């Protein structure tokens, strides 16, 4: 990608203009994002798609109120006009004499950061990137029951330059890559789907094309084809309570929905109430509420290798950090911003502010919300289960507005009988209430099975911002889980 | 800058690309969104923003190979770069073997825009919100919400002189009121202006919140329900996503697959898509410029049709209905303007006919992927849910989870209101539903939320 040359002098002049016009604080985020999407569907390679975004976002803080505006027109006049709009919004709110917002301090930083990668996918020929997709689908084709095949590859290169009136000047470049495939089969009234390595467009990592090579998509295709065909005749499960083991792909979404969103401080303080909802994790619960069993340690880690929620500095110029959300089962911390951390009386922000591009204001977003590994192998997790289920690959998800009551279904499951994995089951559903469920966590897989997954489509805010978040986990066992079937 | 002033200059700027001789065919769409957005809670407005964004997407065909590139800018050099990228990709991409290509027919769908009023002054909006704060403070009610107003302009052009443009104004609000443990909800969207009176929805939301009784848990199981339009719209969104497009229909996962001509839902129910309907957030053409046809999915309970774009129409030898989605989407043809034909009832009539049931103003986090062939969905109730006893709202009810086949639920409709409300989809733009309130005989509640 040719790096876009943002007009540095004009950007710096615009910061100065904002402070001279009365802003107590101002920041400008210049962003350039290049995305590539490849799709092979059934027997056709669909056209490669490229998207290029270039623009500038501005925040002005005036008498305790924020104003935000953005522009893709980078002339001095446009930049100044955009700055004036941001400031006029803040001034307009300040006239209402509502209680002013406070911001935690942030140290000025001058920094340059590149996320690690070995092979830049934007430098590779198209055929090279298409090969694993085409070969996967060739291996999946054949049986009449197979109705739809899709394989995809995504890459994003994001450049951000953040500068602020307190002297920060931070340039960061991130590279993300992901790929996967899915197969849909039908027999009579039964429709089954299997995805690899995960649903929701496979996986997404902060890495180069080397991470796609390690996925080895074509090698997985025969197993996935067999599974989707077997699912068409697999039994469903009766409503019951039983222990379950969820694999790292499903654990990623479990963490995302029932821990990550619940630990967003803007939700807890009511600022997201009208759309996404609130949180059962209230400030008075810090250090007091038992979120899970003593085995449960959950962190929001913006420094995690390959996590798509990793960065050196967030979109407020706050250093990326590792925040303890749950320690040995006890609720310990939040994902926070300068404003929300100040509301809670914290000395500094937890550095979780991200926007999904130049046309969006930063919100508190999950970084990489990870369940720390335990020490059990998968065999050890299932060996003393008399009757239970092993569940894999998310199919549907739903959780209440306080992040307590959840229901997930997975693409596939297997019975566990007398400590052994047995026959396959179709469309399993499990449900629970967050702290009760995590309190029943009775085993966590070890580092050997721990994997980081990227969820590419976390939605939040009005207008909706979709952003990738990272979630690492190993296999996890829970006791007494309510199960049923979606079929 | 007003979109009214920019249409012609944008057309002039983009015209050389569609006239380019470097490709066999070029089609493009540009979407410009201008909006002011305010979010408030805790008697504060922590988010006040002005958005003014443009996205231009080029699709270039060269010897049956396609290149697609988009750019979030109208800067001349960046537009040029994106167009060249699309040309390059068309060179590099393999020709499509099975997917039909071809060119859409010439269309000229221009809009008269003189009647679109500008957005109100930001200080006036701030004052409107302040008035809500004062009203709520006086009633000891906590308010959270959002207000968004602006316009979305869509422009489609191609090498065969297709030129379609449409500017859709909108204003939309969501209000949550909390009074101790009780809560209320109201939403309002208009497609007729870039401003909205916020006090009417506030009255509705406060009416539900101002209750002396705390929300109670009631036994789980089967209930009659009266769903306000915002709750109905959530179910319709998932039906649209999983059931009304040719991709799901042809792969067999739609609840309509294999059922065309059969009576599958209640005879009072007619579900359709109409991008030209008055009162809807309109977009009379699709992203290739094809005129949107009105498509009736379910006609008086009978499964009737789904939407097709040009590609799926050719692939499955069907009539093309003008439902091409943005080129970057992989979901296949999709309806963006779903409506339900109104009934004759009112919410008051419905209440009076309900001996025991639930009144539900909104749903939360519905997911329709559990079993799309039966439209099995799960989600939750949220603010303002009340128990109905002998025609009266008697007590607020704590949030509950439902797990319900919507096909089954829609077989047992007791009433539809004559009045419909426009419900916009999470501020996503020109995408909305126009639906009445619904009275359903059966709805399964399977768990308590808290």
Describe the structure.
- The complex is a heterodimer of chains A (487) and B (450).
- Chain A has 487 residues and is α+β, with helices and mostly antiparallel strands.
- Chain A has helices at residues 8-20, 76-94, 126-140, 210-215, 217-231, 248-260, 265-268, 338-343, 378-383, 434-439; strands at residues 25-41, 44-45, 49-62, 65-71, 110-114, 146-164, 169-187, 190-196, 203-205, 240-246, 298-301, 322-327, 330-331, 353-354, 363-364, 369-371, 387-399, 405-417, 420-426, 428-433, 441-444, 451-460, 465-473, 476-485.
- Chain A folds into 2 domains: 8-231, PmbA/TldD fold (2-Layer Sandwich); 240-485, no CATH class.
- Chain A is built from 10 helices and 24 strands.
- In chain A, the strands form 5 sheets. In chain A, strands 1, 2, 3, 4, 5, 6, 7, 8 and 9 form a 9-stranded mixed β-sheet that branches. A 5-stranded mixed β-barrel of chain A has the order 10-17-18-20-24.
- The radius of gyration of chain A is 24 Å and the shape is globular.
- Chain B is globular, with a radius of gyration of 23 Å.
- Chain B folds into 2 domains: 3-209, PmbA/TldD superfamily (PmbA/TldD fold); 221-448, no CATH class.
- Chain B is built from 9 helices and 20 strands.
- Chain B is 22% helix and 39% strand.
- Classes of the chains: A alpha+beta (487), B alpha+beta (450).
- Chains A and B meet through strand 1, strand 2, strand 3, strand 4 and helix 2 of A and strand 1, strand 2, strand 3, helix 2 and helix 3 of B.
């Amino acid at each position: 990608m040719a790096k876009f040359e943002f007009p540095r002098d004009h950007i710096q002049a615009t910061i100065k203009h904002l402070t001279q016009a009365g802003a107590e604080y101002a920041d400008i985020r210049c962003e350039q994002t290049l995305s590539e999407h490849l799709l092979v569907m059934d027997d056709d390679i669909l056209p490669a798609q490229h998207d290029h975004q270039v623009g500038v976002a501005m925040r002005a803080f005036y008498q305790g109120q924020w104003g935000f505006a953005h522009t893709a027109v980078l002339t001095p006049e446009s930049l100044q006009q955009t700055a004036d709009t941001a400031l006029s919004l803040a001034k307009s709110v300040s006239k209402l004499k509502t209680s002013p917002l406070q911001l935690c301090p942030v140290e000025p930083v001058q920094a340059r950061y590149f996320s690690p990668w070995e092979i830049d996918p934007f430098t590779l020929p198209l055929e090279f990137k298409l090969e694993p997709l085409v070969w996967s689908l060739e291996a999946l084709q054949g049986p009449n029951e197979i109705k739809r095949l899709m394989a995809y590859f995504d890459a994003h290169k994001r450049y951000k330059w953040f500068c602020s009136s307190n002297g920060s000047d931070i340039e960061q470049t991130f590279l993300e890559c992901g790929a996967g495939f899915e197969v849909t089969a039908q027999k009579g009234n039964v429709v089954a789907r299997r995805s690899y390595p995960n649903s929701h467009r496979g996986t997404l990592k902060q890495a180069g094309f080397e991470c796609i090579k390690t996925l080895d998509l074509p090698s997985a295709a025969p197993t996935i084809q067999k599974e989707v065909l077997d699912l068409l005749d697999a039994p469903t499960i009766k409503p019951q309570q039983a222990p379950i083991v969820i694999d790292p792909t499903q654990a990623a979404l479990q963490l995302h929905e029932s821990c990550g969103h619940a630990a967003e401080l803007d939700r807890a303080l009511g600022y997201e109430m009208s759309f996404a909802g609130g949180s059962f994790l209230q400030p008075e619960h810090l250090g007091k509420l038992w979120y899970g069993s003593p085995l449960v340690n959950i962190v929001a880690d913006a420094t995690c290798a390959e996590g798509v929620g990793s960065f050196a500095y967030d979109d407020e110029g706050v250093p990326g950090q590792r925040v303890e959300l749950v320690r040995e089962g006890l609720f310990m911390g939040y994902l926070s911003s300068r404003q929300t951390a100040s509301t809670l009386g914290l000395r500094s922000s937890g550095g979780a502010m991200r926007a999904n591009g130049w046309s969006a204001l930063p919100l508190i977003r999950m970084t990489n919300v990870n369940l720390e590994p335990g020490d059990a192998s998968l065999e050890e997790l299932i060996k003393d289960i008399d009757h239970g289920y092993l569940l894999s690959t998310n199919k549907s998800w739903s959780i209440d507005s306080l992040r307590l009551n959840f229901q997930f279904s997975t693409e596939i499951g297997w019975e566990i009988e007398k400590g052994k994995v047995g026959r396959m089951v179709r469309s399993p559903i499990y449900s629970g209430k967050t702290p009760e469920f995590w309190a029943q966590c009775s085993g966590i897989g070890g580092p050997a099975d721990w994997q980081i997954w990227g969820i590419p489509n976390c939605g939040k805010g009005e207008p909706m911002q979709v952003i990738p978040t990272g979630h690492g986990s190993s296999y996890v066992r829970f006791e007494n889980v309510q199960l049923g079937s979606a079929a | 800058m007003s979109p009214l002033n920019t249409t012609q200059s944008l057309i002039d700027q983009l015209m050389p690309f569609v006239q380019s001789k470097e490709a066999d065919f070029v089609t493009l769409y540009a979407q410009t969104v201008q909006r002011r957005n305010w979010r408030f809670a805790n008697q504060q407005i922590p988010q006040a923003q002005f958005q003014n964004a443009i996205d231009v997407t080029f699709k270039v065909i060269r010897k049956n190979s396609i290149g697609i590139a988009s750019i979030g800018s109208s800067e001349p050099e960046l537009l040029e770069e994106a167009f060249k990228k699309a040309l390059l990709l068309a060179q590099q991409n393999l020709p499509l073997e099975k997917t039909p290509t071809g060119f859409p027919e010439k269309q000229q769908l221009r809009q008269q825009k003189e009647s679109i009023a500008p957005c109100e002054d930001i200080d006036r909006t701030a004052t409107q919100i302040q008035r809500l704060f004062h009203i709520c403070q006086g009633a000891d009610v906590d308010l959270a919400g959002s207000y968004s107003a602006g316009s979305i302009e869509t422009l489609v052009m191609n090498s065969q002189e297709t030129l379609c443009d449409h500017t859709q104004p909108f204003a939309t609000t969501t209000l949550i009121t909390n009074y101790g443990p009780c809560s209320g909800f109201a939403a309002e969207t208009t497609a007729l202006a870039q401003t909205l009176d916020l006090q009417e929805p506030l009255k509705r939301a406060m009416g539900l919140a101002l209750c002396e009784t705390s929300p109670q848990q009631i036994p789980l199981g089967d209930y009659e329900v009266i769903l306000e339009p915002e709750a109905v719209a959530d179910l319709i969104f998932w039906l649209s996503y999983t059931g009304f497009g040719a991709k799901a229909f042809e792969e067999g996962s739609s609840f309509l697959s294999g059922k065309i001509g059969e009576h599958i839902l209640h005879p009072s129910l007619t579900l359709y898509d109409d991008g030209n309907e008055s009162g809807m957030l309109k977009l009379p053409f699709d992203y290739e410029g094809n005129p949107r046809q009105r498509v009736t999915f379910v006609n008086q309970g009978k499964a009737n049709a789904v939407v097709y774009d040009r590609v799926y129409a050719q692939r499955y030898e069907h009539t093309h209905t003008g439902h091409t989605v943005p080129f970057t989407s992989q979901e296949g043809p999709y309806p963006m303007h779903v409506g339900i034909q109104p009934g004759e009832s009112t919410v008051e009539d419905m209440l009076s006919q309900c001996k025991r049931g639930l009144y539900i103003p909104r749903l939360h986090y519905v997911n329709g992927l559990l079993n799309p062939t039966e439209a099995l969905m799960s989600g939750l109730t949220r603010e303002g849910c009340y128990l109905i006893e002998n025609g009266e709202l008697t007590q607020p009810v704590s949030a509950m989870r439902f797990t319900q086949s919507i096909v089954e639920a829609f077989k047992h409709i007791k009433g539809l209101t004559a009045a419909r409300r426009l419900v916009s989809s999470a501020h996503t733009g020109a995408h909305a539903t126009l639906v009445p309130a619904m009275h359903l005989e059966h709805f399964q509640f399977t768990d308590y939320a808290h």
